[in-house]
Write a structure and sequence with these properties.
This protein is an alpha/beta fold. It has four domains: 16-208, P-loop containing nucleotide triphosphate hydrolases (Rossmann fold, 3-Layer(aba) Sandwich), CATH 3.40.50.300; 217-392, Rossmann fold (3-Layer(aba) Sandwich), CATH 3.40.50; 456-583, no CATH class; 597-697, no CATH class. The strands form four sheets. An eight-stranded mixed β-sheet has the order 5-4-6-3-7-8-2-9, sandwiched between helices. Strands 1-10-17-14-11-13-12 form a seven-stranded mixed β-sheet, with helices on both faces. Strands 18-19-20-22-21 form a five-stranded mixed β-barrel. α5 (133-142) crosses α6, α16 (460-468) packs antiparallel against α17 (477-488) and α17 (477-488) packs across α21. The protein binds cytidine-5'-diphosphate and magnesium ion (MG). The site of magnesium ion has 4 residues, from loops. Magnesium ion is lined by residues 66-67, 155, 319.
Length: 698
């Protein structure tokens, strides 16, 4: 049983909290009618602000109607063309669009629609489009002044994602050229001053809306820190279920494994409940799920006697209204990814107070609520940072820079970055990477390949692989398309590490590595009529594979569009290379054009792999066909798609293939490596030398 004790929350206005944390008692209207939300009482102030200045910074507590009402107010009040509203996450772009459509009683995709990467639901009548900042940025490539739009709302600006920050910089430039464009920057928990200073010279109004009527959210903290937050989450959910009145629960954990484990524990506990007791309707929510599975959190539970429990990552943190959520359980942690040149650091760290407030704000949206914070009040007040660390400080900037270049923004230092600007070192390493990927030339000018890469909805290294596949000597476009769309979705296998799945996976598994295994799965799915029944038989996830098929279709359409001006490219997504004898080799070589820095070397004496770049020991992820297996005889080098440093500082590599010959590297990325052959042989008997001078003997 739990050892923790609750004390009543003291997070109330007038306590020792700073201004931003006042909203930890989220201010919600007492009526569920949208027209009585606080934002409506400020309607005239909003419209007036926008008629005087092009930029409006709007701060209003969670639940006041920023996400779902503001675009509607602007639409109703006559902004002539489309209103864009960006949401940091795909799921909230979809859910907000559905909510607003249903308020208008119009089908999703008519007056109100959404567009996110790989998915669009709009029509010629659409006047309000919810989208991710990345989608709008990519739209700028073809329409730099965003002429389709009359207003752009950048919602949840506190999130400080790199794409939303860059979008603000781009919008700052656009409003100077387009006098009729209006920009609203909104959030419940942003640092208003920072954004006001950023837009100061462009004409900005700051509007802070107070709560009006509200539903209270009572906040409770732990008296003592807990040791195991997953166990504490399970205990707390269980205690709510047994002791607290009716109402659904939303709990935050940091990742898929924790979520699955918590749900499993809750499901086991239910078995001991008496038959008459109310059951839990258990649902996971994380970015690894398909859109269809993610949206399963919205409907009411199948029976009214059931209590819905959603256990989510921070994707449920902002902009989401789950009808019926009364209780929020917040572990106070989040998983972040800091991208490195080869290895990404995945860390679990404390959330900011802004995030804690957003999380609490998921309760009490349609009735009073309670938030259980699994940390002490002292941690909240003294240890948590006020707001999130901007992503620009911890992410690989190559795709951002590629995008800016394709928008004609060449002087990256002069670009108006929302502070803090990226460091010169980060900018330089991103430029170097883009140069190796042939997206920019020796004078850092964008190439045609780079232009296409920026349009493709793929990270630059994968976009490069796709474009390489349509050139000599690779010519394996069809296969690479299938592999890339499989890499773009989450694992297609159910419970990828279970013995049963491993068995099924073996029937698809290719000696040569995981990329061909992915290709085998994709081809088998297509050959077997893309049937759900066939998927179930092989423990494959039908919706994940269907999504892969749809992504492939979209990538194909990009290639078709490029083909009209594609000198030197053989953009033939339909013709398979597999009939030719050296197809596998060509596919692997082609993958190297994007994955070239990701090399590891097998050491037969220790039966382990080390990274070529740093000599660091790495572990093959259990989902790989190379897990617990040596590379084929005589082969020592492998290439991988992803390396992550996770718990206990272990680095895992996933999606691998064997590198047959070090010379492949030379042809794939000329100038990056030198190969020195010592014994005159191939098959890895040699050493590779990074041209920067660092040697890697074997
Ligand atoms: O963005 P903000 O937090 O200011 O509010 P919102 O997401 O626009 O939602 C405003 C209010 O609308 C919520 O507090 C709910 O009362 C209601 N709402 C709802 O009932 N169902 C939804 N799907 C969305 C919003
Ligand atoms: Mg919102």
């Amino acid at each position: 049983m739990s050892t923790s004790f609750w004390k009543p929350g003291s997070a109330r206005p007038g306590s020792s909290l700073d201004r931003s944390s006042e909203a930890s008692s989220p201010l919600i209207t007492s009526s569920s009618s949208p027209n009585t939300l606080p934002i409506h009482s400020s309607r005239l102030a909003i419209l007036h602000a926008l008629s005087s200045n092009p930029i409006l910074i709007l701060s209003a507590p969670t639940g006041s109607g920023k996400t779902t009402q503001l675009p509607l107010i602007l639409h109703t009040d006559g902004y002539p063309s489309i209103i864009a509203c960006t949401q940091p996450r795909r799921l909230t772009a979809i859910s907000s669009a559905s909510r607003v459509s249903s308020l208008l009683s119009s089908p999703l995709g008519s007056t109100v629609g959404y567009t996110i990467r790989f998915e669009t639901n709009t029509s010629s009548e659409t006047s309000i489009i919810y989208m991710t900042p990345g989608t709008l940025l990519r739209e700028c490539i073809r329409d730099p002044l965003l002429t389709r739009y009359s207003v752009v709302v950048v919602d949840e600006a506190h999130d400080r994602g790199v794409e939303s920050d860059v979008l603000l910089g781009v919008l700052k430039k656009v409003v100077r050229k387009r006098k009729d464009l209006r920009v609203v920057v909104s959030s419940a928990t942003m640092e208003v001053e920072a954004f006001r200073d950023f837009f100061e010279e462009d004409g900005v109004t700051v509007l802070q809306i107070a709560g009006g009527k509200k539903f209270d959210v009572e906040v409770a903290y732990l008296k003592e820190p807990c040791e195991d937050y997953v166990r504490e989450t399970v205990e707390t959910i269980w205690r709510i279920h047994t002791d607290e009145p009716q109402g659904d629960i939303l709990a935050f954990l940091t990742g898929r494994d924790e979520i699955d484990s918590a749900l499993q524990q809750l499901s086991d506990r239910q078995l001991d409940l008496p038959a008459s007791a109310a059951r839990l309707h258990l649902l996971p929510l994380h970015s690894g799920l398909s859109t269809e599975d993610q949206t399963a959190i919205f409907p009411l539970p199948p029976s009214r006697a059931m209590r819905k429990v959603v256990v989510a990552t921070n994707i449920a943190e902002a902009s989401i209204t789950l009808d019926g959520i009364v209780y929020v359980v917040d572990c106070g942690l989040v998983k972040t990814r800091n991208s490195g040149e080869v290895v990404d650091d995945v860390r679990v760290e404390a959330i900011s107070r802004a995030s804690a407030i957003q999380r609490a704000g998921r309760a009490g949206r349609t009735r009073p609520g309670k938030c259980f914070r699994l940390y002490t009040e002292e941690v909240f007040l003294k240890e948590m940072r006020r707001s999130s660390i901007p992503e620009v400080q911890r992410t690989d900037l190559s795709s951002t820079i590629l995008l800016l270049k394709s928008l004609g923004i060449d002087n990256l230092v002069k670009f108006p970055w929302v502070p803090p600007a990226p460091t010169a070192k980060n900018l330089a390493s991103a430029l170097e990477k883009l140069h190796t990927l042939k997206a920019i030339d020796d004078h850092t000018r964008l190439t045609t390949t780079g232009m296409w890469m920026s349009e493709l909805p793929l990270p630059p290294h994968l976009a490069r692989i796709l474009l390489s596949s349509a050139t000599e000597p690779f010519l394996c476009c069809s296969e690479i398309l299938s592999i890339l769309c499989m890499l773009s979705v989450t694992s297609a296998f159910f419970a990828p590490e279970s013995a049963e799945t491993q068995l099924s996976k073996r029937s698809f598994s290719a000696q040569e590595g995981d990329f061909l295994t992915l290709l085998n799965v994709f081809l088998a799915f297509s050959r077997n009529g893309r049937s759900r029944k066939w998927c179930n038989l092989h423990r494959l996830n039908f919706s994940v594979l269907s999504r892969a098929v749809s992504i492939r279709g979209q990538l194909e359409r990009y290639l078709e569009r490029f083909s009209s001006s594609a000198e030197g490219y053989h953009l033939q997504p339909k013709s398979s290379a597999l009939r030719t004898p050296d197809a596998v080799e060509r596919i692997h070589k082609c993958l190297l054009t994007g994955l070239y820095p990701n090399l590891a070397r097998y050491n037969p004496s220790t039966l382990s792999y080390t990274l070529s770049a740093s000599n660091q020991l790495v572990h093959v992820h259990p989902t790989s066909t190379f897990f617990n297996r040596q590379p084929p005889h005589g082969k020592r080098w492998i290439v991988f798609a992803e390396a992550t440093r996770a718990r206990e500082d272990k680095v895992y590599i996933r999606d691998l293939c064997v590198l047959d010959d070090l010379d492949w590297l030379i042809s794939a990325v000329p100038g990056v490596y030198k190969v020195e052959t010592r014994w005159g042989g191939t098959g890895g008997k040699g050493s590779i030398v990074h041209t920067s001078g660092e040697g890697d003997d074997m």
